[in-house]
UniProtKB/TrEMBL annotation:
One Pfam family cited in the UniProt record for this chain: EPSP_synthase
EC number: 2.5.1.7
InterPro entries cross-referenced by the UniProt entry: Enolpyruvate_Tfrase_dom (IPR001986), Enolpyruvate_Tfrase_sf (IPR036968), MurA_subfamily (IPR050068), RNA3'P_cycl/enolpyr_Trfase_a/b (IPR013792), UDP_GlcNAc_COvinyl_MurA (IPR005750)
Residue intervals of the Enolpyruvate transferase domain: 8-422
Catalysed reactions, semicolon-separated: phosphoenolpyruvate + UDP-N-acetyl-alpha-D-glucosamine = UDP-N-acetyl-3-O-(1-carboxyvinyl)-alpha-D-glucosamine + phosphate
Origin species: Mucilaginibacter angelicae
Protein name according to UniProt: UDP-N-acetylglucosamine 1-carboxyvinyltransferase
Positions of phosphoenolpyruvate binding: K23, N24
Length: 435
């Protein structure tokens, strides 16, 4: 079995596409089912590698998992097999994805201890976990890292609510500390909390389960611990990173695409950032319509200086869409500075774009200047390997816009986050073959 896409580019696409449920929300709310012995039903779950791995991991632990239909599952975490955490299987699977770190908070809260092998995820720079463990320690847990087996361990007979100033607004770190605090004794205040829609959704689901959380959507969460949580039903939001990726795809390939049911009010500044690149988009009902565009022109700042697009914790612009913005800028008129502040190694994929004919200067590991080609020159197809999930999709978008054939290897990286992407893009007219 090989794992590559062969793409014949240069053809405009047309049609409607529905975004999958949000990957990063799925990883949080599926971990949260461990907080109760009652049944939790979650719908709109994307059929992607990372999420399926987490569901499998919960099943291995003893959670009763039932697949009701393609995108709806029920979970019942009645009995958890504590021996599983000592097994080789846990070591192999637990470290296989970044999201598995979020089983630690719920396990600690419910059973007083948890272990996790150093988690996986993209190689996009150092990805520390201090925020998670410093938060657990504040709640009264003992933490140790065993360098021999690579396990992080936390232990607590009683978690006690307290004031926690997170050392950074970590997305998964906030989720983990929130999930530990909901069953702690007394009141926990979390300041410098991340507040991405993923976290808002998690907090809303926990509230429906009986948790007492205020400040949802802000960076100051107050949690009054409760004794027990119960079952609930929860539906995932559409994946905002997929929505941004499809906006970029439409613009870069000059395609008319309608993105269905986007829950526009949850997208924050994402549509505006693409609009500042000159891309036209219209809200029709709750769909985003992107007309076919031969030209789009990047705005300058009001003083005439070159636009910078940078990432920031929510409600700032998500780092997960910067690679896509960078690629789309290649065919814009004008220039833009892309500043990836959070991750250190997420811009190196520009090498491949240079080989395709893009005009980009990699200023340093965090910054790249894109000088738009204004569709005067097309990119050319090449063979390349996808280094991470978002660079992978960006390269796919570049390949679909390029003249000639491209091959993208290591597409597991793409498929860990984008559901049946080849089939869905083929339905829009893309020429993609899986080899
Ligand atoms: C499974 C999951 O949900 N993954 C997402 C989650 O990862 P994850 O939760 O692992 O990322 P974190 O929010 O912890 O941090 C991401 C990076 O940004 C840095 N950082 C973070 C906050 C801050 O205020 N300043 C700062 O510099 C961190 O040091 C780290 O290098 O959030 C990231 C940041 O949105 C996204 O890219 C990932 O897709
Ligand atoms: C970096 C990402 O994922 P993860 O945190 O799972 O590596 C992402 O979704 O862009």
């Amino acid at each position: 079995m090989t794992n590559a896409f062969v793409i014949n580019g240069g053809k405009p696409l047309k049609g409607e596409i529905t975004p999958q449920g949000a990957k990063n929300e799925a990883l949080q709310v599926i971990s949260a089912v461990l907080l109760t012995e009652e049944k939790v039903t979650i719908s709109n779950i994307p059929d992607i590698k990372d999420v399926n791995k987490l569901i499998e991991l919960l099943g291995d632990m003893g959670v009763i998992v039932e697949r009701i239909n393609e995108h709806t599952y029920t979970f019942e975490a009645k009995d958890i097999n504590q021996d599983f955490f000592l097994s080789e299987a846990f070591k192999a699977k637990g470290g296989g994805l970044r999201g598995s770190i979020m089983i630690v908070g719920p396990l600690l809260a419910r059973f007083g201890k948890a272990s996790i092998p150093k988690p996986g995820g993209d190689k996009i720079g150092r990805r520390r976990l201090d925020t998670h463990f410093l938060g657990f320690e504040k709640l009264g847990a003992q933490f140790n890292y065993n360098p021999e087996n690579g396990f992080f361990n936390v232990d607590a007979s009683n978690l006690q609510g307290t004031y926690i100033l997170l050392d950074e607004a970590s997305v998964t770190g906030t989720a983990n500390v929130v999930m530990a605090a909901v069953l702690a004794k007394g009141t926990t205040t979390i300041y410098n909390a991340a507040c991405e829609p993923y976290l808002q959704q998690l907090c809303k689901m926990l509230s429906r389960m009986g948790a007492r959380i205020s400040g949802i959507g802000s960076n100051l969460l107050t949690i009054e611990g409760v004794e027990k949580l119960g079952g609930t039903e929860h539906r995932l939001l559409p994946d905002m990173i997929e929505i941004g990726s499809f906006i970029g795809l439409a613009a870069m390939t000059g395609s008319e695409i309608t993105i269905k049911d986007v829950q526009y009010k949850e997208l924050g500044m994402i549509p505006d950032v693409f609009k500042r690149l000159g891309i036209k988009l219209e809200l029709r009902g709750d769909d985003i319509f992107i007309p076919a565009q031969d030209h789009y022109e990047i705005e300058t700042f009001i003083d005439g200086s070159i636009m910078t697009i940078a990432d920031a914790p929510w409600p700032g612009f998500t780092p997960d869409l910067l690679s896509i913005v960078l690629v789309v800028a290649i065919q814009a008129k004008g220039s833009v500075l892309i500043h990836q502040k959070m991750f250190e190694s997420r811009l190196f994929f520009v090498d491949k774009l240079l080989d395709m004919g893009a005009q980009i200067i990699l200023c340093d590991p965090h910054r790249a200047t894109v000088i738009g080609l204004d569709n005067q020159v097309k990119l050319r197809g090449i063979s390349m390997t996808s280094p991470d999930i978002r660079a992978g999709v960006s390269l796919l978008i570049a390949a679909l816009s390029a003249q000639g054939q491209s091959t993208i290897y290591n597409i597991e990286q793409i498929e860990r986050g984008y559901q049946h992407i080849d089939t869905r893009l083929k339905a829009l007219g893309a020429d993609i073959t899986r080899i």
